Amino acid sequence: MLAVAFLGLAFFIKSLAQTDNHKDAEAAATLASQAWLKIIDAEDYAKSYLETGKIFQSAVTNEKWISSITPIRKQMGKLIARENFSTTYTTTVPGAPDGEYVILQFKTSFANKKEATETVSVVKENGSWKVVGYFIK
To answer: Using CA atoms, how far apart are residues 61 and 45, in angstroms rounded to an integer?
Structure first.
C-alpha cells in the first residue's frame, strides 16, 4: 500500500514539474508572439517574415506573405485592443513535425472590425520561440 502511495506521489510531483515547464514555455511563447504582433501592427511585414520559423518560411515566400497580409490588415484597420484568452502547449500539430508548440488566441479589436480572433502558433526553434502560423477570424 505504501508503494502505491509513493508511486502516486511520484507521479503527482512529476506532473507538477511538467506543468511548471509548460507554464515557462507558454510564458516565453506569449512574449515572442506579442513582440511579433507588434511588428505586424507596425505594418513591417518584411521584418515579420524574417522573425518567423522555418516551417512558416518553407510554406510561403516573403513576397507571398507580404502580398497576403497587407490587404487583410489594411481592411481591419489600426489595432484598438488585444487580449490573450487562450494559451495551449502541445508537442504535436497536424501537418508539422513533432516539437514544442504553443497556440495562442487573442480577442482583438481593430478600427474596422470590432471583434476578431487572432490565432498565433509558435514553435521552439534553436532555443527561441518563432511564429509558424497566423490567422484572423
So the answer is: 12
Q: How far is CA 101 from the centre of its chain?
A: 8
CA 17, 19, 24: angle at the middle one, nearest 5? 95
Provide the percentage of residues in the chain whose pLDDT is more than 70: 85
Q: CA torsion sign, 97 to 88 to 122 to 14?
A: negative
Instruction: Report the phi/psi class of residue 64: left, alpha or beta, with left for phi > 0 and alpha for psi in -120 to 50.
Output: alpha
**pTM score, whole prediction:** 0.82
pLDDT in tens, 56-105: 999 999 999 999 999 999 999 999 999 999 999 999 888 888 999 999 99
Structural domain boundaries in the chain: 2-136
Element (H, E) at 65: helix 62-76
What's the CATH code, domain 2-136?
Answer: 3.10.450.100
What residues are paired with 125 via a beta bridge? 128
Q: What is the pLDDT of residues 39-57, one digit of tens each?
A: 999 999 999 999 999 999 9
